[in-house]
From TrEMBL:
<dbReference type="GO" id="GO:0016705">
    <property type="term" value="F:oxidoreductase activity, acting on paired donors, with incorporation or reduction of molecular oxygen"/>
</dbReference>
<dbReference type="InterPro" id="IPR036922">
    <property type="entry name" value="Rieske_2Fe-2S_sf"/>
</dbReference>
<dbReference type="GO" id="GO:0051537">
    <property type="term" value="F:2 iron, 2 sulfur cluster binding"/>
</dbReference>
<feature type="domain" description="Rieske">
    <location>
        <begin position="45"/>
        <end position="143"/>
    </location>
</feature>
<keyword id="KW-0479">Metal-binding</keyword>
<protein>
    <submittedName>
        <fullName>Cytochrome b6-f complex alternative Rieske iron sulfur protein PetC3</fullName>
    </submittedName>
</protein>
<dbReference type="InterPro" id="IPR017941">
    <property type="entry name" value="Rieske_2Fe-2S"/>
</dbReference>
<keyword id="KW-0001">2Fe-2S</keyword>
<dbReference type="GO" id="GO:0046872">
    <property type="term" value="F:metal ion binding"/>
</dbReference>
<dbReference type="GO" id="GO:0016020">
    <property type="term" value="C:membrane"/>
</dbReference>
<keyword id="KW-1015">Disulfide bond</keyword>
<feature type="signal peptide">
    <location>
        <begin position="1"/>
        <end position="24"/>
    </location>
</feature>
<dbReference type="Pfam" id="PF00355">
    <property type="entry name" value="Rieske"/>
</dbReference>
<keyword id="KW-0411">Iron-sulfur</keyword>
<dbReference type="GO" id="GO:0004497">
    <property type="term" value="F:monooxygenase activity"/>
</dbReference>
<keyword id="KW-0732">Signal</keyword>
<dbReference type="InterPro" id="IPR014349">
    <property type="entry name" value="Rieske_Fe-S_prot"/>
</dbReference>
Length: 146
């Protein structure tokens, strides 16, 4: 085997051995807590998760909601209700993170901060987060995309 054949053999082997890792990273199991939301009901509300799921994870993030991404958190002033926002930061589009201790959404990119209701608390964002009507019904969390 000459040098060229050897390098080709190593290159093919490297690609072949990394294929299962690449496939695993792309599989739906990698985003276990971000499964697609169920279809909307006749009243426009869409089941997006359960109260148990919200309590366990502290939030429910859906990347495939009707209007884009959706982040649902427990209302910090009334734990019997929930709040739903589009977590896409209005500054440059990063995904904001819920900070329960501070009762706010904070953008990891440039530090914008939003209230639990999506209002701007700190720039550079110049528009509030989009919000959605959300409610708890039984053990289900429902959000209306409108
Ligand atoms: S993208 Fe959020 S502060 Fe810049």
């Amino acid at each position: 085997m000459n040098r060229r054949d050897f390098l080709m053999w190593v290159g093919v082997g490297g690609v072949a051995s990394s294929l299962p890792i690449a496939l695993a990273a792309c599989s739906p199991k990698a985003e276990k807590s971000q499964s697609p939301a169920s279809p909307p009901r006749a009243d426009g509300f869409q089941p997006i998760g359960t109260v148990a799921e919200l309590k366990q994870n502290g939030q429910i993030l859906k990347k495939e909601f009707a209007t884009g991404s959706l982040l649902v958190v427990s209302n910090p002033t009334d734990s019997t209700t929930v709040l739903a926002v589009n977590p896409t930061c209005t500054h440059k589009g990063c995904t904001v993170e819920w900070k329960a201790d501070d009762k706010s959404f904070v953008c990891p990119c440039h530090g914008a901060k939003f209230s639990a209701e999506g209002k701007i608390l700190k720039e550079p964002a110049s528009k509030p987060l989009a919000t959605y009507e959300a409610k708890i019904q039984g053990d289900s969390i429902l959000v209306k995309a409108s």
